[in-house]
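User: Please look over both lines:
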Amino acid sequence: MTSLLVQSCSATKESVDTPVPALDLYDGYFFRIIKKALRADQFQPGLDMIIISAEHGVVETDDKIGYYDRQMDTDRANELNDEVVGEIAEKVAGNEYDKVWVNLGADYLPAVDGIEAAVDIPVHYIEGCGIGMKGKRLKHLVSSGRPDPVHGD
């Protein structure tokens, strides 16, 4: 199984003076889950990830970026929509993914509006009542390749 995880950036970032890989810059709750799985060598093989950045749009985990302080809002998400949907569709077309997993907060969702029509594979959203449940489902996804069974996917 190969899947693409679309993850929002985080407000919590490492304080860096020079650009670093995006995965190293972000330090929010979901990134701590992802990094812990990577450190423990438990990150699901075949699960690729891209980050939706309020500042940069679509960012690969190894793209070098510097510190910034821009928050996502509905206007910015709408502004990024064409770019984000286009880049996700291009990435899906260039790889043999079985699914796209989306882990975005409400402010980010307009950035991926229309993604289901742009790709020819299932798009699933990591949902939950609060950040803790979403984190639990993300942890299960990155370590097993599927979300928490409670999610029903």
Notes: The mean pLDDT is 92.
